[in-house]
Amino acid sequence: MKIDGGSTAWMLMSTALVLLMTPGLAFFYGGMTRAKSVLNMMMMSWVSIIVVTVAWVLYGHSLAFDTAGDGGFLNKLVGGLDNIGLSGLVDTATKDDGTGMPSLVFSAFQMTFAIITVALISGALADRVKFGAWVVFALVWATVVYFPVAHWVWGGGWLSNLGIEDFAGGTVVHINAGAAALAVALVVGKRVGWRKDPMRPHNLTLVLLGAGLLWFGWFGFNAGSELAVDGTTGLAFMNTQIATAVAAGAWLLVEKLRDGHSTTLGVASGAVAGLVAITPACGFVDPWAAFVIGALAGVACAYGVGLKYRLGYDDSLDVVGVHMVGGVVGAVALGFVAAYPFADGQEKGLLYGGPISQLGVQVLGPVAVGAYSFIVSWIIAKVVDKTMGFRISAEDEVAGIDITTHAETGYDLGTVHSSGVASPNGPAVVPAAKKVEA
Question: What's this model's pTM, rounded to 2 decimal places?
Answer without folding.
Answer: 0.93
